[in-house]
Amino acid sequence: MRLWSTLERGPVELPPPEEKKRVGMYVCGPTVYDYIHIGNARPFIVFDVLRRYLESRGYEVVYVQNITDIDDKIINRAREEGSSPEEVAERFTREYLEDLRALGAKLPTYQPRARAYVDKMIELIEELIAKGHAYVADGDVYFSVRSFPGYGKLSGKSLDDLLAGARVELGEAKRDPLDFTLWKAAKPGEPKWPSPWGLGRPGWHTECVVMSRELLGETLDIHAGGNDLIFPHHENEIAQAEALSGKPFARIWLHNGMLTVKGEKMSKSLGNFYYARDVVELYGTEAVRYFYLSRHWRKPLDFSPEALEEARKAVEGVYEFLAEAELAGGGKEVALPEELAGEVRLLEEKFHGDLEDDFNTPGALAALQGMVNAGKRFAAAGGDRRALAAIAQRIRKLAAPLGLFQRRGPAGLPGKAEEIIGLLVDLRAELRRERNFRLADAIREKLAALGVELRDTPQGTVWTLR
Questions:
Q1: ω into residue 232 within 30 of 0, thus cis?
Q2: Phi and psi of 302, rounded to 5°?
Q3: Using one digit for the tens of pLDDT, what is the confidence trace for 411-432?
Q4: Which pLDDT value is given to residue 17?
Q5: Domain boundaries, the chain
Q6: Residues 256, 42: contact at Cβ < 8 Å?
Q7: Which of 147, 227, 132 is nearest to 179 (CA)?
Q8: Cα→Cα distances 458→254, 291, 329, 368, 381, Å
Q9: How far is it, in rounded angstroms, from Cα 6 to Cα 157?
Q10: Mapping DSSP to helix (H, G, I), strand (E, B) and coil, where does residue 72 land?
């Protein structure tokens, strides 16, 4: 499998599972001061799917995603509310976990919280000071950027370019405008911990270095996040980790493109954002996942209600085919004719080939849609419709790592609602057999008013959501 690494600015091969079975993967998690917006959700979905796909191909993925529960934004939110930073962080951590569930993402193998690792952060900072890479100034500790020759290699920024835009904030005692904070001296009303430099708290860039090293070792296989983290966050992580170990911090660096709204980055500061939970409620989990996967993970993606509606319709279209195909199969296996089997086999190869070539999810979705279209053409040409069940089975198996097309009814409804609709469809079928068309039509009309459309086929009635 080849993945485009930001550091190499080109594809890097991931050894096959028979050569290296265990993959350590670190994905930067949320700062828990608010609900996540739909832009925040992109890396959580994209890298969840990458993890699932690697697992389906035989890798043992140790997936770590941190919770940043020490941060200026959390402190500011607590001040606005009149609560404590601990209360804010705990509340929005719970909400984030609920949002992950709503997005259909698997829980990480480990989900470390920064507060639990402060002692380890202090140890790391002490090591950096001892090696001459950091210094103490008025209770703060700074990393000396010029002490690390490789600084800028991830972002491609030169020290001269960085210096032109750098400035020293009021109250900072750093020796060089390029230096960044490892430890912040305590201010009134802020969380604080004892340290050799006095009471204070760790900097954000140090938190991720410590948690990833503690759980995955000195060199990670994959480090991932949004491309807004390349600089300064990931650049500063590399500087600390490699200054200590002298080893590469990560073998592969993955950065997804930003979600935009009319070409502008989605952000809370601009006010052009939508909470992820609201979008999921409107369009459904699978439509949101399909929306993200329909664009290459490294490319920017523009958000709009129209794009989400298209994704919802695409998901429902596949479910409609699956329902018809499985109904036609009647629970019996019928072998695919050789010509159709060959077409499906090529599409299956395309699915895997696209995902293993820089995780091309749009190509993989096109392969699944190709199977749907092949089945429809086969049925329209008078082929044995019972064979469609075999195509449906392949679609479900391939789509499982994508988190798509696993439900046994249309997406977006809880199980009980599906059962009730199924009972009404069965009742209508019985009424039609008894030639009670007035009542059968009334059931159809009432369901249509609720957004449930019925379509009668030679194999039975199929229902879909409008």
A1: yes
A2: -90, 130
A3: 555 556 777 888 898 899 889 8
A4: 95
A5: 2-256, 280-402, 415-465
A6: yes
A7: 147
A8: 49, 33, 12, 25, 15
A9: 13
A10: helix
Cβ neighbours, 10 Å, residue 67: 23
Contact of 99 with 91, CB cutoff 8 Å:
no
pLDDT in tens, 176-203: 999 999 999 999 989 999 999 999 999 9
Cα separations in angstroms, 271 against 14, 283, 288, 437: 39, 21, 21, 53
SS3 readout for 395-407 = HHHHHHHHCCCCC
Antiparallel, parallel or unpaired: β 2-5 and 140-143: unpaired
- Give the CA count within 13 Å in the CB-facing half-sphere of 327: 17
- The per-residue pLDDT for range 336-391, each reduced to its tens digit, is 999 999 999 999 999 999 999 999 999 999 999 999 999 999 999 999 988 999 99
Angle between helices 388-399 and 338-356 (to 10 degrees): 10
The Cα 156–Cα 389 span in angstroms is: 51
In the numeric block, the tokens 């939970």 are attached to: 277
- Measured in whole angstroms, the distance separating CA 134 from the mean position of its chain's CA atoms is 34
CATH architecture of 2-256: 3-Layer(aba) Sandwich (3.40)
Residue 275: CB partners within 8 Å, gap ≥ 6?
Answer: 35, 36, 37, 38
* Beta-carbon count within 10 A of 224 CB: 27
Helices (H) then strands (E): counts for the chain: 15, 15
What's the token pair of residue 324? 């018809």
Please state which CATH number belongs to domain 280-402: 1.10.730.10
